[in-house]
Structure formats: structure tokens, C-alpha cells
Amino acid sequence: MEINVKKTLLILLALVFPFSAHADTLKVTAWNIEWLGSHERNIRNEADYKELARYAKQLNADVIALQEVDGADYAKKVFGDEYDYYFSTKDWVQRVGVAVRKSAGYDVKSIEYKALDVGRVRHGMDIIMTKGDKQLRLLAVHLKSGCFDLPLDSKSIAAMPAEDDRQERRKIACDILGKQIEPLESWIDARASEGIPFMVLGDFNRRFVKDIANKQPEDAGLWQAIDDEGNEALWSPTLEKESACWGGYYKDYIDHIVMDVNARAKYVEDSFEQLVFEPEYTKEISSKLSDHCPISVKLTL
């Protein structure tokens, strides 16, 4: 009799508070789809777009942070009309965007985060997703390439050699990436004060495991700069994994899905995955698929 009373109470509570008994599981992905746009370096034909679409269907993500995609028209070649697309307006084919599955039922507000453009680099996309009392905030990024693990403080950069074109490009890259730290950290600090679960995801062009292994100080390591204590403590599953993309040639991730303490509390344990392409690596095949494999996590909101 007591068991029946408990069951009756549970049913009544579910009827009165239907949303309290229901949680959404969102699959969130970051994918740099190399030169997916109107640039001459995009050598894909229709069969290649169909192959990308096959992988996108296999990925089956609810939210996708996209890099190197020239707007919604090109994104639809891969992901179709099932998503709403939010892209930066910077006049460059390597745009940053976010795709949100329409059937997920979230109201979406997008804000272009231009502060990351510290000199001929890409904007971020700040996305606020709301459904009832559920909320998630995302910043999709594609930071400056070319300074994957060198110190980012001004003294170290000033001491870097620039005796040939390669060294000069690397020095410039480190200088620009170092300047992106302040706007990135400012966004994170502002979000941490709000208490809403948030993530920063995309192509950071930075090997966080190297920042940690090298014990970089806060002004020299990108990870150390953004990872603080308390509400600003951050985590990414890529800190504990090795990449298997294209045979694991680059085992250290530069694509990351970084979560604050509130988002990590909603992380489905062991849900991190990397979708690895089936063919063996050749430069041509990787150019038609991508030089980056998508990475994903699941959150229960």
C-alpha cells in the first residue's frame, strides 16, 4: 500500500511539474572543416560534399561550432536544413559559426564577438541558448595559427629570432595569439560571474597539454591565462586524451571543448568522442574531408 502511494505521488508530481522530470541531452561538437567556402583551396566536388554529409549524419550533433566555413550556404551542403546557422560577418571565407538543430527547441541569441580580432584574425560567435529555465552559453573560436606551444609573454616573443620568413611568421603568430588572450579571458571572466553554464570551443591552435607540461606562467601559456580558480576554473576532455585523427600524426589536440564548473557538472561522463575519418591519410583526401576531425561531448541540461 505504501509503495502504491509513493508511485501515485510521483505520477502527480510529474503531471504538475512536467519539465522537472525531463532533461535534455545535447551533443555539442567542434569541427574545423578545412576551407569549406568559395576559396580556390576548396577543391571539393559534389561527391566530396556527399561524403562530408555522410560523416555529418554519423556525427548527429545538436550544436556544432564550425570553423573555416564560408557561411550558411556552404554549411548546408554538409548539414542540410535541419539546423539554424549563426555566422560571423567578417569578410573572410574562414568564418566562425554555430549550427543549432531546429528540433532541439532552443531559443537562440547570437552575438558576434569582434574583440578577438586583434589584427587580421577571426571573430568569435557568442551563442546564448534558452529553453524554459535551461540555459547554455557558448563561444565558438578560431584563434591565430602558428604558435602552438611557444611562450606568449611579450618578453619571450621579443627574444624570438626573425632571421627568415618562417621565423618571422612564427613570431608574428605568437604576438597575435598573445594579444587574443585578453579578450578571451575577459569573456570567460564575465560569464563566470553570471553563473550560467558556458563553454568555449573550436580551434584554439594551441596544444594545452604542452602549456601544462611546460608549466608556463599565466602570461606565457594560453591555458594558464584562461584557467583560474573558483567559478573560473576550466576543464576540457582534450587535456586527458590523444588525437587519433589521420592516424594520430598530431597526437596533441589543438581543437578543444572547454567547460566551466557549471557546464562540467552537466557533462555526461565518458561522452567525449572524436569522429575519425575512414580512409588512410593523403594530402588530397584530407583536403576534401578536413585536416581536423570533429570532437564532441554530451551535456545533460
TrEMBL record:
<keyword id="KW-0378">Hydrolase</keyword>
<feature type="domain" description="Endonuclease/exonuclease/phosphatase">
    <location>
        <begin position="31"/>
        <end position="292"/>
    </location>
</feature>
<keyword id="KW-0732">Signal</keyword>
<dbReference type="InterPro" id="IPR005135">
    <property type="entry name" value="Endo/exonuclease/phosphatase"/>
</dbReference>
<dbReference type="GO" id="GO:0016787">
    <property type="term" value="F:hydrolase activity"/>
</dbReference>
<feature type="signal peptide">
    <location>
        <begin position="1"/>
        <end position="23"/>
    </location>
</feature>
<dbReference type="InterPro" id="IPR036691">
    <property type="entry name" value="Endo/exonu/phosph_ase_sf"/>
</dbReference>
<dbReference type="GO" id="GO:0006281">
    <property type="term" value="P:DNA repair"/>
</dbReference>
<keyword id="KW-0460">Magnesium</keyword>
<dbReference type="GO" id="GO:0004518">
    <property type="term" value="F:nuclease activity"/>
</dbReference>
<keyword id="KW-0540">Nuclease</keyword>
<dbReference type="GO" id="GO:0046872">
    <property type="term" value="F:metal ion binding"/>
</dbReference>
<keyword id="KW-0234">DNA repair</keyword>
<dbReference type="InterPro" id="IPR051547">
    <property type="entry name" value="TDP2-like"/>
</dbReference>
<keyword id="KW-0479">Metal-binding</keyword>
<dbReference type="Pfam" id="PF03372">
    <property type="entry name" value="Exo_endo_phos"/>
</dbReference>
<keyword id="KW-0227">DNA damage</keyword>
<protein>
    <recommendedName>
        <fullName>Endonuclease/exonuclease/phosphatase domain-containing protein</fullName>
    </recommendedName>
</protein>
